[in-house]
């Protein structure tokens, strides 16, 4: 093998990447746009500000007590209060997602509290029911809002002191710790690193079918260039592209607030795991190029390998992990999650096992790809 | 000076399923000779070039180039040959200069040599102005000339030209003829396949006429014209291959 030939073939691939807008978009711009889109959509921005749930209040009582209760609800920082004239308007807004919940303060609310405060034993016959409607689609709303309302109600009826009754045990001055706030964006980012690499299947398949149909592969075969040099250069050029992808996504996600919980060697392992996915995808690309007759059919066929990797091993939540274990991206995403999100040690068994499985995948899929393309794909 | 056997083809056969593309071909081509390989569409000319270039394996028989066997020593042969394929094969996203230089790299020439030869070739093929433009804007003739230059960057001893002047304008065609005459002066061995019989008559020292994969006539153009008592080589060709229109295999 001659380094000069390998370098020439790698240069050719990198020139193609820069000068072919479609490839440039697919390999570099698309993952970057995806990172930005996820950043905006899933909480990278404003993740430090507190979340507020919109709660509507229909006050059918209109007494001092009902106003006081409303004031206590408004004091809850997690809730943002909107007043409604009637139930129907609040119901419509809840139905259309404009509210997370609404409360109806019934007539007699104030009188009931007044009676209770005069004679706490006389609850029977005086109680009224505060209606609460919640967004059924949100488990968070279901879990968070009722305790807030209960707390506001207790505070209204019994006063603030009721919330902290006398106790022989007191809580000391709290130590303030800056928590690691993980947003949905943080959970999705590891998958984006793997996701970017899987499109190399399509690019490799397109390039090889095009070069074959244009007679370029045959022409190169009339020079002293060996098949080994062609495959090595193909893998090396894609490894360079994969490295650029990882660094770009890392840079963009960092700007959007993603803070990996690992050290320098952890970053190296992340790059290595993505590069192993790259090699596996070069293998998939070679298999597709051996089957496909034209560049456009290669594009379509590439999705045979892209879609399972995308749905089972990238940023999309999966219900069945056992099926996910069939795709290489799963192991890369797991490695990245372990290192970047969970702060796992680089020597941890789970990280090392995932890397080993990825090495196996890269060798087997890459090897099969080279074998099949060499046998069936060159002509 | 034509002297020793440079290419030797012995009992060469190539079958594709039921089709025999090359049928027991025996041929000797001499060093420094321009050999014209003529034949109707699908006669087997390109298959012969492919076998000599190592792109196809013969079903039977063998060929030697400069004493190296195409079946066993193709890597040595690849250092000696320059192939100008019928279909121009180049990278559209690269410039003409980059395309030529890349083939210099694939032949492991040193960078100064690549630079100098690329410059000379670009001047010779008349692509000086367009050399640094992406080739996807080249005309058909420019692409053909580039295709030829890419085959010559390593100054090969043996040059295989498969229909090099197809779709060229008369000026480009004449320029290519000039190249081929220069190859002869440089003592290079050239195999030229062409449909333009007058091109072969003009350039080739000897021609071989092939039909259905078989060599049906071989000789010096003038001698063949005299032998068949016709006006030119084209009439010899028609006399031997008939007037029926052929299709590619």
Pairing-aware structural class of the strands and helices of chain B? alpha/beta
Low-confidence runs of at least 5 consecutive residues of chain B: none
Helicity level of chain A: 55-70%
Structural class of chain A: mainly alpha
The rounded distance between the terminal residues' Cα atoms of chain A is 23 Å
Q: What coarse outline of chain A follows from CA principal-axis ratios?
A: elongated
Radius of gyration of chain A: 30 Å
The SSE string of chain A, one letter per element, is HHEHEHEHEHHHHHHHHHHH
Largest sheet of chain A at a glance?
4 strands, mixed
- Note the beta-strand portion of chain B: 25-35%
SS elements, strand count of chain B:
10
Order of helices and strands of chain B: EEEHEEHEHHHEHEHEEHH
List keywords for this structure.
heterodimer, A: 379 residues, mainly alpha, abc type-2 transporter like fold, 2 domains, four-stranded mixed β-sheet, 4 strands, elongated, B: 249 residues, alpha/beta, six-stranded mixed β-sheet, four-stranded antiparallel β-sheet, 9 helices, 10 strands, 38% helix
Describe the structure.
Chain A contains 16 helices and four strands. The mean pLDDT of chain A is 87. Chain A has 379 residues and is mainly alpha-helical. Chain A has a four-stranded mixed sheet with strand order 2-1-3-4, with helices on both faces. Chain A starts with a helix and ends with a helix. In chain A, helix 7 runs antiparallel to helix 13 and helix 13 (303-313) packs parallel to helix 15 (328-341). In chain A, helix 3 (64-75) links the parallel strand 1 and strand 2 (79-84). Chain B starts with a strand and ends in an 8-residue tail after the last helix. Chain B has nine helices and ten strands. With 249 residues, chain B is of the alpha/beta class. Chains A and B meet through helix 1 and helix 9 of A and helix 2 and helix 3 of B.
């Amino acid at each position: 093998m001659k380094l000069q030939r390998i370098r020439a073939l790698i240069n050719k691939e990198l020139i193609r990447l820069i000068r072919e807008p479609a490839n440039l978009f697919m390999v570099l711009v698309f993952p970057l746009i995806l990172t930005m889109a996820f950043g905006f959509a899933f909480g990278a921005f404003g993740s430090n500000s507190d979340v507020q749930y919109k709660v509507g209040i229909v006050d059918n009582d209109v007494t001092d007590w009902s106003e006081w209760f409303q004031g206590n609800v408004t004091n809850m920082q997690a809730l943002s209060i909107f007043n409604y004239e009637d139930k129907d308007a609040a119901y419509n807004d809840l139905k259309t997602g404009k509210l997370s919940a609404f409360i109806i303060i019934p007539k007699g609310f104030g009188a009931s509290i007044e009676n209770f405060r005069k004679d706490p034993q006389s609850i029977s016959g005086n109680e009224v029911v505060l209606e609460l409607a919640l967004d059924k689609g949100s488990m968070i709303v279901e879990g968070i809002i009722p305790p807030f309302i209960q707390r506001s109600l207790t505070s209204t009826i019994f006063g603030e002191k009721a919330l902290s009754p006398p106790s022989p045990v007191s809580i000391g001055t709290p130590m303030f710790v800056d928590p690691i706030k993980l947003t949905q964006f943080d959970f999705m980012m590891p998958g984006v690193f793997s996701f970017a690499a899987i499109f190399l299947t399509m690019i490799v398949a397109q390039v090889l079918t095009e070069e074959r149909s244009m007679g370029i592969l045959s022409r190169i075969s009339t020079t002293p260039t060996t098949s080994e040099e062609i495959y090595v250069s193909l893998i090396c050029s894609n490894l360079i592209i994969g490295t650029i992808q990882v660094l770009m996504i890392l840079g963009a996600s960092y700007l959007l607030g993603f803070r990996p919980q690992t050290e320098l060697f952890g970053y190296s392992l992340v790059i290595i795991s993505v590069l192993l996915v790259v090699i596996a995808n070069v293998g998939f690309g070679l298999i597709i190029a051996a089957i496909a007759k034209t560049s456009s059919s290669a594009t379509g066929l590439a999705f045979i390998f892209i879609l399972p990797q995308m749905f089972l091993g990238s940023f999309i939540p999966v219900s069945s992990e056992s099926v996910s274990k069939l795709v290489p991206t799963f192991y890369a995403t797991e490695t990245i999650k372990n290192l970047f999100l969970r702060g796992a040690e680089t020597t941890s068994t789970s990280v090392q096992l995932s890397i080993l499985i990825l090495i196996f995948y890269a060798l087997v899929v890459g090897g099969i790809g080279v074998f099949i393309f060499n046998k069936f794909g060159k002509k | 000076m034509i002297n020793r056997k440079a290419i030797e083809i012995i009992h060469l056969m190539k079958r594709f399923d039921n089709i025999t593309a090359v049928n027991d071909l025996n041929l000797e081509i001499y060093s420094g000779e321009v050999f014209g390989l003529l034949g109707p569409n699908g006669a087997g000319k390109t298959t012969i070039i492919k076998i000599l270039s190592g792109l196809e394996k013969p079903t039977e028989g063998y060929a030697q180039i400069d004493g190296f066997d195409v079946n066993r020593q193709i890597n040595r042969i690849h250092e000696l040959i320059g192939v100008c394929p019928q279909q121009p094969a180049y990278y559209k996203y690269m410039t003409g200069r980059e395309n030529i230089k890349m083939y210099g790299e694939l032949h492991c020439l040193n960078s100064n040599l690549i630079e100098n030869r690329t410059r000379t070739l670009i001047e010779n093929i008349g692509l000086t102005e367009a050399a640094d433009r992406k080739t996807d804007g080249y005309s058909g003739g420019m692409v053909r000339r580039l295709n030829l230059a890419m085959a010559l960057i390593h100054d090969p001893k043996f040059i295989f030209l498969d229909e090099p002047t197809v779709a060229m304008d008369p000026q480009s065609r004449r320029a290519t003829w000039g190249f081929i005459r220069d190859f002869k002066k440089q003592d290079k061995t050239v195999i030229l396949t062409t449909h333009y019989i007058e091109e072969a008559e003009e350039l080739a020292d000897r021609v071989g006429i092939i039909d259905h994969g078989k060599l049906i006539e071989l000789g010096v153009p003038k001698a063949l014209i005299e032998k068949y008592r016709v006006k030119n080589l084209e009439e010899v060709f028609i006399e031997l291959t008939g007037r029926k229109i052929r299709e590619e295999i």
